[in-house]
Amino acid sequence: GAVVSQHPSRVICKSGTSVKIECRSLDFQATTMFWYRQFPKQSLMLMATSNEGSKATYEQGVEKDKFLINHASLTLSTLTVTSAHPEDSSFYICSARDLGEKLLFGSGTQLSVL
Amino acid sequence: QKEVEQDPGPLSVPEGAIVSLNCTYSNSAFQYFMWYRQYSRKGPELLMYTYSSGNKEDGRFTAQVDKSSKYISLFIRDSQPSDSATYLCAMKLSGGTSYGKLTFGQGTILTVHP
Fold first, then answer.
1. Is B75 at the interface with chain A, CB within 8 A?
2. Cβ within 8 Å, pair B107-A43
3. What is the Cα gyration radius of chain A?
4. Which residue from B110, B41, B28, B21 is spatially nearest to A9, judged by alpha carbons?
5. In a 3-state reduction of DSSP, which class is residue A16?
6. Looking at beta carbons, which residues of chain B come within 8 Å of A107?
7. By CA distance, what is A107's nearest residue in B?
8. Is the Cβ pair B100, A103 closer than 8 Å?
9. What is the pLDDT along chain B (114 residues), one digit of tens a residue?
10. Which residues, in sequence order, are bridge partners of residue B73?
């Protein structure tokens, strides 16, 4: 069945480095994928909408130069956190729409910036 | 006022109890309503998806939507320890540019103890 696969599940990095997170749709094509961020005990906040073959659409307050999104194919979107700092530490989750109206979520990536 | 309000709990019940989770919303334009279950440090898993007012049942889960009162509920019958998780309500406008732009509640932390 349709699944959204996200990697890595956990990453620890030093301040100032860049981290790439991959999101893949398995058994279906996703022209649009979504990236969310979740702080502990808080709900998911939409960061950006990733569109295959075009620029991502960012939500208000999200720095596009900090969070680079690439959606090069119908099954892969990547989020790169550039020059990461401790305040970027969070749980990042991607999602994609299946053949219907339903959104499927990846398993999430816990980013810890030291 | 938040667009979607959900009691964060935590909610603790004995095994076998009936659990009632609720969300209220202020935007009458919301058309699609979802309930997600999220285990710790995992992506949300879709449990129920509804469009119209009324009840929808799936196994031990029943989703209820009352658009006139802007109120949705999720009932869990015969609750099990494996149901212990955070439950998120989510809703969105109809299609088009709002696609995937879910608005989430805060999430309710549920613990079912043996």
1. no
2. yes
3. 13
4. B41
5. coil
6. 42-43
7. B43
8. yes
9. 678 999 878 999 999 999 999 999 999 989 889 999 999 888 999 899 888 889 999 999 999 999 999 999 999 999 999 999 999 999 988 755 455 678 899 899 999 999
10. B22, B64
